[in-house]
Amino acid sequence: MTSIRAVRRWALRVLAGVLALCVLAVLTLAIWAKSGVMHAEAGAWESVLTDPTITVEEHADAVVLRPAEETRTSIGLVFYPGAKVDAEAYARRLSGIVAEGSAAVVIVRPWLRLAIVDPRGLSTFTDYSPGTESWMVGGHSMGGVRACSAADEADALVLFGSYCAADLSGDQLPVLSLSGSEDGLSTPQKVADAREKLPASATMIEIQGASHSSFGDYGAQKGDGSPHIDDEQMNSTVTAELLDVAERVRSE
Predict the structure, then answer these.
(1) How far apart are CA 168 and CA 181, in angstroms?
(2) Fewest 10 Å CB contacts: which of 1, 79, 96, 205?
(3) Which of 186, 178, 231, 235 is closest to 207 using CA atoms?
(4) What pLDDT does residue 31 have?
(5) 105 and 164 in contact (C-beta within 8 Å)?
(6) H or E stretch covering 67
(7) Could you report how far apart the first and last alpha carbons of the chain are, in Å?
């Protein structure tokens, strides 16, 4: 009897220790996620808010961009930000496909600003545009890794300065991978090394002069390279490639 009680006490202590470690891990992650947040540049965000061709809806879990004169869109993009980067930081880069391609764009505000730990399915965000027929999923950096894990729910995958951890090489969906020649984080070598995890038909574009932070408007990022491409060039390049993959999805 005594031994049974001893075992129970030991089991309770182990359980208490495990729970304490879990709580500590969650608190540590929450503190880390709130430190060093990369905020959207005010001017870039304001340019989207004041664009007469676009309407902006701000929700607790997403920023939604729509064509101002369209009540129904045929295609949309759910986009996951990079780790600790504001959703608004991607609005200007993605505004071109809204204004020129009549697409709906839903930029996720992930839990703890870490898309990789956000378990919500794609429908959480596509519900913001219920009339949209086809959906692409994309993301920047760690957000791209999260997008890869949601690719089976979408009609196309778009990666900005990112690569997949999961093997999608056997999938048939259209894939667009945009990387930067000066990216110091998702380096050209890292993107090349992970190429085998994408379908053979994937479109791989290395934007000359682009760094990791060139894919958003949030300033310089530690560990990144030095870009030598301006915002106007970056916007036009990203828009052109997104319009191309959107047209491929529409035609299928």
Answers:
(1) 24
(2) 1
(3) 178
(4) 47
(5) no
(6) strand 62-67
(7) 70
With CA atoms as reference, report the closest residue to 139 among 171, 105, 112, 97: 105
What's phi and psi for 55, nearest 5 deg? -110, 145
**How many CB atoms are located within 10 Å of the residue 223 CB?**
8
Question: Which tokens sit at 213?
Answer: 């932070």
Look up residue 212 and give its DSSP letter: S
Paired strand residues for 176: 158, 203
Quote the tokens at residue 181: 């020649």
Written as six digits, the tokens of 173 are: 């969906």
The token pair that represents 182 in the structure block? 């000066």
Q: What is the pLDDT of residues 3-57, one digit of tens each?
A: 666 555 655 555 555 554 444 444 444 544 555 799 999 999 999 999 999 999 9
E strands, 86-243, are: 104-108, 134-140, 156-160, 175-180, 203-207
Query: In 37-50, which positions are buried (b, 16+ CB within 10 angstroms) versus exposed (e)?
Result: ebebbeebbebbee
pTM: 0.88
Task: Tell me the residue type at 32.
Answer: W
> Could you give the angle at the alpha carbon of 163 between the alpha carbons of 162 and 167, nearest 5°?
160
Tokens of 123: 């429908």
